Amino acid sequence: MGELCYIHCITPMTGEERATPRWLDLIWLLFLGSLALLPPVREVHKQIILLFIGAFQFLESPFIRRVPREGPLLSVVIKIVLATILMIHTSDVGINSSYYPIYYLPVTTAAMYFGPIGTLIWTALSSAAYCSYLIPALKQFELTPEGRGELMLHIVFFFLVAMIVNRFVMEYRGQSQRYQLLAENLSETNRVLKKTQDEARRAERLAALGQLAAGLAHEIRNPLGVIKGSAEILNQKLGAADALAKELSSYIYTEVNRLSALVSRFMDFARPSQLELRPQQLPALIERSLKSLAEQGVTNGIDIQRDYSPDLPAAMVDEELCEQVFNNLVLNACQAMGEKGGTLILRIRTDGGEERRGVVVEIEDTGPGIPPEMKEQIFNPFVTTKKSGVGLGLAIVTKIVDAHGGTVRVTSEPGHGACFQIVFPQVQPEMEADVH
Hints:
The structure is a single chain. By secondary structure, the chain is of the alpha/beta class. The chain folds into 3 domains: 2-184, no CATH class; 198-270, Helix Hairpins (Orthogonal Bundle), CATH 1.10.287; 277-434, Heat Shock Protein 90 (2-Layer Sandwich). The protein is built from 11 helices and 9 strands.
């Protein structure tokens, strides 16, 4: 029997030949062209198979994108089949073909798409396809120890190249994930930094407006007191005979009271928040605000729904200022729903995080909602959607909540109402015993 021989010229392919840059595509074309010019040159089937290999290399990326789950598996299978067919058309005895390095193509492809175990499995299948030519060859030839060693050397190199490529690919993927994580962290840091800068600028504007409001309120309050006192004396001195003058003096008295209330709101906004923090149960505070507003007729025609979570922790708040926050928000919600009424939904719960550091209060109405262009502005002073408002209510709410170390957010869709969410810091566990 004849002897099986092996040619030693090996040209392994790396995963870089599958990359998409144009210059790599050009190199791939030159490589296939070189194979086409090597013997056997006039073997038509060889040229057709090389053409199929080249076409599939170019179409592999869109093929994988179109079939993301089965694409990598089918890609390796197709390359194994094409490599196996090429072997038999480049030698009378397939196992002796000098084109056996073509099996590096499916091996490196598997190394790029699969993990270490998957790479080993596909390399074993590629080696099995290569060794399948031994079956017909052994019917005519004898496999010598030298030939057996040469065959094993080829197979070992298949595995060696596969694992080296796979190691580089896995390292590249890990590095890409680290870069992606770093980019996400940087993006989050930039977002937080931008938010902090916006809050700092807003705090500066509030501070300037507060100083201006304090000065104006102080200068206006004294003349208002004189006008109010004069109107009261005038009203007492006027007899019933001069009804018109008595009516005008009552108008002066009423309007002065209104202006005095407005000045008080300016002072509330301008005055630094002196907090007297104590552990408080927020359901009790919000119920007290509801009772006060109900006595004023604010909640007439409003269906109030409560959703208070059981076993709520206490929050560290200033009782009086916290009631002012709830008064302003509930009053705004009721006024937004108007005379037709609607539904006022009150929710109190913990923040839901593992550390549970906050108590969340949500005040939701079924009014017309807030226009999208106003969402970022309604917490600024002197911005209001009411015809008769001065735009200080939500600014005062934000100022008080910020002083507590909490947050205020609003979600709203036009025509579907608005929901204000306030988060107050909860009492630390060691202080829970002092709540009651």
